[in-house]
Amino acid sequence: MDEASFLEGYDPRKYPAVAVTVDVVALTIRDGRLCVLLVERGAQPFAGRRALPGGFVREETLDQAALRELAEETGLTPGGSSAEEDTAGGHEAGSELDRVHLEQLGTYGDPGRDPRMRVVSVAYLAFAPSLPEPTAGSDAARAYWVPVDEAKDLAFDHDQVLADGLERARAKLEYTPLATAFTGPEFTIGELRQVYTAVWGEELHAGNFHRKVLSVPGFVESTGETTARGGERGGPKPKLYRAGDARLLHPALLRPTREDRVR
Amino acid sequence: MDEASFLEGYDPRKYPAVAVTVDVVALTIRDGRLCVLLVERGAQPFAGRRALPGGFVREETLDQAALRELAEETGLTPGGSSAEEDTAGGHEAGSELDRVHLEQLGTYGDPGRDPRMRVVSVAYLAFAPSLPEPTAGSDAARAYWVPVDEAKDLAFDHDQVLADGLERARAKLEYTPLATAFTGPEFTIGELRQVYTAVWGEELHAGNFHRKVLSVPGFVESTGETTARGGERGGPKPKLYRAGDARLLHPALLRPTREDRVR
DNA sequence: TCGAGTAATACTCGGAGTGAGAAAAACTCG
DNA sequence: CGAGTTTTTCTCACTCCGAGTATTACTCGA
């Protein structure tokens, strides 16, 4: 930020009031479908419409505000930092929110996006393993998971925010180990493949996926164990893996069908 | 944005005042070096320190605010939209700012990042062909281009903002035709390679680069012309190209030396 | 208990893309 | 003119990919 000379001594409080909020695009996978957390709006404007959870920023960092909003709406209590964290081994006292990956998505501040006043909203993207339906918390009563393809006609510019979040999520699956943020601490290659299938909305060749995941250094590491049972519809007991220490996937797992890349 | 029930009728103007600003990381290439536009701060805090250009958001979109700040600091006048635009053919009346590519980088809002009050700053990233030294405009007198490796100890959290901007720029060169935003409307493959060299800070194999650029559909298209003269230090007259219509490069031009990818 | 169906895993094959190096040709400058 | 430089094109070996096939180990229902 810079004050030009003519702004010297300028008091920004004299500006028309600007409110800063955070909105959260929280994604999870339930029953093999990619879902987003929405709340039902009770008040005007957009009363009765669904919206992304969010609220005003208090005396806290933007990251903290996003995590707080997510905690309030899901009824879960934040345990640790906003970065995902492996409690490899037994389940410690950490909240389920400890495993949530949170990152800033973008900021939406067009005049008029909220009819009441100028509101600048910082959107966040959250990735979580399958979380319980948020009914517990008092505040969370109005929040629920909705499959992303049914999340339309949202309040404000939230259709756009959600679309941007989905595109970000799909892209990040290609070159980061983000998919493991959707699984439990231990998972099978098949479960990992289902994450990609749900987010990308495309079937993947099981054999090639298997080969590629295991060939990327640091993506997954074997636990040496297998599941206790085979799949529900048959098949051998798959091996179990946990997330490795890679931050970027190399080589990347690129999405198929990329003819639509040129303008 | 969502108002929880207990916020019904809440007036956000009762919150401690929050100011919203835009900061611009404007990059260009001068003499083969990647440079960023900085201003010298005259007032406290951080008087005498260098900072990214920026200022308060007015009644305008965030994108417009960023373009306005950039125009004010460079002394150039904005002509068209914020998106880059090809005036293929003759030079029309458009400003040099028409060819600037502008995109949102991220938002920085830690309490205390500005000692005076709570300031939430939306950072933008701008890419421009070599622009004149900004001396013309009244307001721009304090702004100048600085090689990025000499841009240290900036005011506020601008070291971090600049670092984030550089990483974004380096990454986008890999999978988008962004490099053409640093060149003139017509350019040679060698000039394009120098853009990559300057931004990535690494030498590239000329033969392989040539092959890859021409093999990516829609990256560049031939004008059928060559330059009037060969290079200053010799070599044949290179062919001229202009930007194609691709929005994403496929296959991508990946950076070399990727051992440092894992945590 | 058997047989059908399914999933995990491991192959093979041909094609595309890549880094490194070589080389021919075209041009500048001294 | 000659040395040095750049553009442009090849070659070669290697990696990676998509598609297909095969094997094996399961579950479940008849």
Automatic annotation (TrEMBL), chains A, B:
Top-level taxonomic group: Bacteria
Region (Disordered): 73-96
Domain Nudix hydrolase: 13-168
Family matches, as InterPro entries: NUDIX_hydrolase-like_dom_sf (IPR015797), NUDIX_hydrolase_CS (IPR020084), NUDIX_hydrolase_dom (IPR000086), WH-like_DNA-bd_sf (IPR036388), WH_DNA-bd_sf (IPR036390), WHD_NrtR (IPR054105)
Pfam hit, one: WHD_NrtR
Keyword vocabulary terms for this entry: Hydrolase
UniProt name for this protein: NUDIX domain-containing protein
Organism: Actinoplanes sandaracinus
The organism's taxonomic lineage, starting at the top: Bacteria, Bacillati, Actinomycetota, Actinomycetes, Micromonosporales
